[in-house]
Amino acid sequence: MSPTVYHYLTLSAILFSMGTIGVLTRRNAIVIFMCIELMLNAVNLSFIALSRHLGNLDGQIFVFFVMAVAAAEAAVGLALMITFFRNRESIEVDDINLLKW
Amino acid sequence: MLLFSLVLIFAAAALAPWLLRFGAVRASTFLTFPPLVLTGYFLTLTDRVGAGAVVESHPWVPALGVNLTFYLDGLSLLFVLLVSGVGTLVFLYAGHYMREEPQLGRFFFFLTFFMGSMLGLVLAGNLITLFVFWELTSISSYFLIGYRHGEEESRAAALQALLVTGLGGLALLAGFLLLGQVAGSLEMSAVLGSGEVVRDHPLYLPILLLVLAGAFTKSAQFPFHFWLPSAMAAPTPVSAYLHSVTMVKAGIYLLARFSPVLGGTPPWQWSLILAGAATMLLGVVLAIGQNDLKRLLAYSTINSLGILVFLLGIDTEKAVHAALVFLLVHALYKGALFLVAGIVDHQTGTRDIRQLRGLGRQLPLITVATALAALSMAGFPPLFGFIGKETIYHVVLDAPSAAPLLTLLTVLANVLLVAVAALFVLKPFFGRPAMAVDPHPLPAAMTLGPVLLAAGGLVIGLLPWLIDERLLTPAASAVLATPTQVELALWHGINLNLLLSLLTFVLGAGAYLGWLRWGQMAARWRPLAGWGPATWYKWGLKGLTGTAAAQTRILQHGYLSLYLLAIFVATCGFAGLALWRAGGVPLALQLGDLQFFEAVIALLILASAVVAIRSDSRLGAIVAMGVIGYGIALIYIEFGAPDLAMTQFIIETITVILFILVISRLPAYAELSSRGSRLRDALVAVAGGGLMTVLVLAALATGSESRLADFFAETTYPEAHGRDIVNVILVDFRAMDTLGEITVLGLAGAGVAALLRLRPTSKRGENRHQSQEQEEMRQSLILATATRYLMPMLLLLSLFLFLRGHYLPGGGFIGGLVAAATFSLHAFAYGVKRTRQILRLRPRTYIGLGLLLALGSGLVSLVTGHPFLTGRWEALQFGAMGELQLGTPLAFDAGVFLVVIGATLAILLPLAEGD
Amino acid sequence: MENLAQIAMQDVNFGAIMPSLVLVCFGMALLLVTVFSPRGKTTHVAYLSILALVVTGIVSLATWTPAGSLVGNWQEGFGGSVRLDNFATFFNIVFLIAAGLTILMSDDYLKREEYPIGEYYPLILFTTAGAMWMASGTDLMTIFLGLEVLSISLYVLAGFFRRQERSNEAGLKYFLLGAFSTGFLLYGIALIYGVTGTTKVALIGEILANNPSLLTNTMTLAGMGLMSIGFLFKIAAAPFHMWTPDVYQGAPTPITAFMSAGPKAAAFAAFLRVFVIGLAGLQDQWTSLLWILAVLTMIVGNVVAIYQTNLKRMLAYSSIAHAGYALVGMVAANAIGLSGILFYMLAYTFMNLGAFAILVLAGKKGEDNLTLDGFAGFGFKRPFLGVAMSIFLLSLMGIPPTAGFTAKFYIFAGAVEAGYIWLAIIGVLNSAVSLYYYLRVMVYMYFRDPAEDYGWVKMHAGAVLSIVVAIIGVFYLGIIPGAVMEFAKLAIF
């Protein structure tokens, strides 16, 4: 049984778009960030499928890096959100509006 | 040598502030020497220049073919002598005139700096060098006009002058770049030789317009004339030097310089004649009714600059001669008159011709000089001005077309000159003395300037052969690019010119008499003048700042969600563009051979995604994210990447723990945005998301056709001592990228520590209390017991995963993650404090040790003669238990193991500690 | 096909990552030093990080090959994923200068703002190492990794002042927007990988050249478009620039200075390598896109800067405009334009860091005084700083004889040579607009009476040193740019 590469690429595209929709419609920084993670996961799916399709391993290696990087990003991002929350008592992005013009 | 003369002036400029310690008079006297020496030096060059241009080149930016080239021909020489000769007199004058002003160091620095820039401008042998010096004159002029910075008027005038001339200069640069492109070189000698190529080129018109923009702004031609009268806010020596004799003539120099290249065509002639004529007329109209000596001179300068441009536009041999003659005439009398205006101001404290009267008795020598200069201005024989005017009349009468009209204009302009000259002499110096005058005698240094300049007009008028052969002929030959002969004579017999001159005097006398009455009339027109280009300038400036403000408020609103939207919309735009370029959408959604397993996973993932992006429950969203992550891990397994799946599982788990820990301390969602904005976002997002999906699907439909898979054969790894792809690659093959990975994790740990280590001091006590309470609450007995038994097993598992990493899925990275997950579980069960006690060392220390180990193993390879970070294997026999291969990769892996533990905990523990 | 293990053995090349390796080692060691240092003491960490930069600089210079990239013995390593050619080395030097000047001005600044936290310096070193990977990476993987190392460090550094709301906001905004644009970049890479089957930049170029049908493939074009977003975001080209002013204003001032020079140069380096080599076949497509974006970027940056009264924010907007000028060189995509970008990055590093160093010195705690009014009469009260600031502003305007002029000239000459005459003219006109807001600072410094007492400006040795170095750089590149321009010419592919 060989997984149908094309189906997974489609799934990946839809997931990616859903991630962007989430980023754009949500107002909570943490949820926005979770949606970004969703986008990255979607890309990983593409890499894996393409790697299989092309028969080389570069895609798999790439996925590994993306996972590690995403984890590190999550850590730093959450730390930033916590410091923000400590000072502002909020984590809604519409409150992130001190710097403008 | 030409370079040296510039260096001399700039060195003097650098010294100027220091020289001022010895007093203004001494300093300025000292500063007169460099220009004096240069005047002498360049006078000795007249014969050499008469024989041909002197070119001197120093390499500057060889990569771009830009050289520091100097080019001295007749035209340059004429200007050089004006700059250095008049400069000498102005410095001498300024030392006394400015004696009591503050911050003279700055003044003399910029004045000297200007002189150097102006010399550079007229000596430049390369378009870029010319532009550089061109802008430097604008900048020094800016500082000199704004010298009395306490006055709002000075500041505004300085900025206005700089903006107008600076902008013109940039247009000039654009023109030069085009010109250099067309001519194939930026060197003056090459450009001057490629006139035909340039004139026939399609870019000729843009080049012409850009160069004219530069020249017209600098030389105050209509409609850019308005900065010049305002610039009279500068101290008088500056007005005399920059704004009548030298800087404003830079535009004239430019036109004359490039007339062999750009001239001789109808666009050139018409634009110059029109601009020149308009400027002439405008100078006349605006001068009427002025009562300030300096402004009067400023408007007559505008008039004269108009005449010069006009003559260059007529473009005949005689016209060029006349322009050069008039240039010199104007420099001599206008320089003198400005300096006199300064003296009058200095001695009486006013420049208003309605108040000035009868100064003749106090200042006899100055009166004589003024009279001579004014007579030259009015064009009386036997002064040089007469010769100048006669040549001009000769040219306009013989003009190729529209001679009567041109003649009329010229006469009108000269009438004004007569009237202004009369005003300037008769009003202040004659009549009953009724003024309080500074009793101190005028210093000789201040008298010298006007007297010498005015006397020059007389001497040349009487003995024109002094200059026509040696100075003007080479200059005219340079402008016309063919040998020509300038012959000046005072007396041409009785002819039409002479009659016109007589008419000019009569009308001029009438204008003088009617001055005051006209002045009242002009005062009524004044509001009309307010609608001129000066207002356009103001509006332009206002419009610019207004646009800027509006644009800023619209674009930089500070709302993150709209920033995100902007990125997304632009992205969709790009994507749409790509679709359009590729020509249509070959969309082909094939769901034919969809398999059951795939369908289930896909549905699970998509449903979770919907929950994640729509859910109002934070925990729900996190769990949904986790499900997506696990679902994707299952797909990895299906694709034959179990190691990746394993990593994905563990990372997803840790991430979920992380999110739960953090989110439990943050408030629930708030509904801040309005329904409308959410609807808008949703619409854009769905439309855009749809577009993205369609695009990607379209892309895949075409992309999957390419059979590139054959290009890359499947590869195997028999010799890398392991079969786990990712791990082998990580440790051996892509050690460098691994280093990067470790760096990412290490710096994430460092970053979190830096951001969270110290809590806000004000809340510390309260927080500690709270967090203790939380920790107690968290200690569930079941969890604690389970953890106690689970922990050793999990740690063993992590060790196992770590050791077998080279054969099967696992390795330092995954082992480390499992260990870290174990410790975070412990922290969850027992509280962070206990976990820290178990760990003994701070997480960051683990990171450091791990790194040292990893790097150390790399260095061992290096020392033993292998490339850095490559495998170095030694097999250890364990009897019946088999063999364990020890090698630098294992040490490296151990380093990774430690780093991952340290980094993960450095991240998790601070986040888990309550605050 | 060779088997991978052998490739692994042969291709690992110690030299190819030497500079970044030194930096990372130093960075990690400094993290340890920080752990064992008494709280609040960071000066020794600053000195050590300067030492790290100097050592790295020596290592980098040692790898320069005078013969040029194409024929020189450039060092390639790690399966062709890193290549330390002259291009990389030139950029490495730019990063090192930017980092060095930043660290010099940081020590006293951190003390004044009461954030003496040692992690600051290792984070800067990591950022620099990330930048180096971006410049020397010849594999999209290496470039992505470098980009992320750089970005994550910068997220932390931008939000470094934990108790300051502005800094929090800068960090969080930068983080969310940066992560979002990374998603697009990554998808673009995936698509390109799907088309060509490789992530190696040179190989991508080769495959596209050998299969012309791929050039019109929707997947290739979409991949190019998505990939460019990640880079355009980092260089702050319009319309991906919106984060710049907010983040630059909120971040600690030395970090703002650093961000405007180092990471921006790194993004340009990666952008150039990927597009000029990897996507050479699509040059017509991306130049037409970048033409529009360059114009947009210059206009947006300059026009919005006019409105600013906060100097940090003003310099942020102006940095957008400068990215636009540099993009002009990329549109030209000829030898002069490309080496012009390199030169521009170096010149911009000197002039912009110099200007920021003055803001660092002139600011009071909290930095509310870094406005136009706060600078009234500054030139008289602080003659040295006033003159220095004027020099940097003139250079930013592009007035000769400063580095800013030669750099701009270089870029525009490239555009003219490539036939983009109107682009060059638009660039020149934009420089004209920029005169307005740069000059206004000088007007306030010299033509306004001091509004307040300037007695508090302490001339800290580190910041003064960085100012002096920047002045030397500005004049060196402005008056005798020949040697560096030759270097830049040797450095392009």
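The first helix of chain B runs from residue 2 to 19.
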